[in-house]
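Lay summary. Proteins are chains of building blocks that fold into shapes, and those shapes determine what they do. In this project we predict the shape from the chain. Here is one chain we studied, written as its sequence of building blocks.
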Amino acid sequence: MSTIDLGMPTSGIAGVPLLAHGEQQTKRDFTSDQEVRWCPGCGDYIILNAVQSFLPELGLRRENIVFISGIGCSSRFPYYLDTYGMHSIHGRAPAIATGLATSRPDLSVWVVTGDGDALSIGGNHLIHALRRNVNLKILLFNNKIYGLTKGQYSPTSEVGAVTKSTPFGSVDQPFNPISLALGAEASFVARTIDSDRKHLTDVLRAAAQHRGSALVEIYQNCPIFNDGAFDVLKDAQESVARVLRLVDGEPVRAGEGDDARVVIRTDAGELELVPEPGADPARVVVHDASAPNPAAAFAMSRFDGPDMTTVPMGIFRNVARPTYDDGVRAQVAAASPDGPATDDELLALLHGGDTWSVTG
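And here is the predicted shape, written in a compact code that computers can read:
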């Protein structure tokens, strides 16, 4: 199996050691001996299979790959991968992963989280990991419901959603995870869906190639508490008409043939979806994921709505900027030009005279 071009300034991902020349890996190498325990029909199975099949492409040693999760159905992920991993604290996976990525540049660090875990109790940790541009790959499974705790509404449930905790319908305005990530200045933002294996794998590949924080929202079906939430996007004919395909360097369009529609920029500077036949070519928006200003990507994310009439899908943003962990390590190196402190130096510090005395 060939490995992907990671496009990094050093070998591997952020200096992560590569496999020895000629050494091969397969999906089996990344499949643990644990019994997979999700409900039958859960979209997590598809995502797990895609990730296990994709990881060999990285060409990294399993001991140099870490998956950190929070709490929720998706957060069982580390059990099922034969890599290092941690099933951590509710909403705090980005914080734990930040410490790991900063202290261990020899690791490829991934975060697996859900819409409740990431956007409710973990919302603060998520936005700061993104704005700092920590070298993390964050997979946000969005099923628009709390599955593990049995069907309460989540921060992405639509207004009016009838759930165990909102029997008369939710009155909360939901988050748009893509808009949120772009507003937090994330350097890589993408959306895909569990049922489109090729698209899912392509997006994972692009996220792995990116140096910095990569947020991938994955629409994922919960067959028990929110079954069919994304059926209109999984129906072959409906998806063609509804999905706005974001392909870098190509016009943003949905539909085919006479029913095709394209995104144009109006005189007011806003984006509008119009029939492609007769559209002014000079106004047609060509997708540019590497645009320094995230305004156009944010405007694209606003086409999304609860009725899923128009759903942008693909990579919204992919730009390069300095990472938090590189910056911290550079400061440490500058402050310690002779390298880390020796054991004798640490003992001298601990037993030195400049200490605090605490009296009762």
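What the prediction tells us: The first strand starts at residue 65 and ends at 69.
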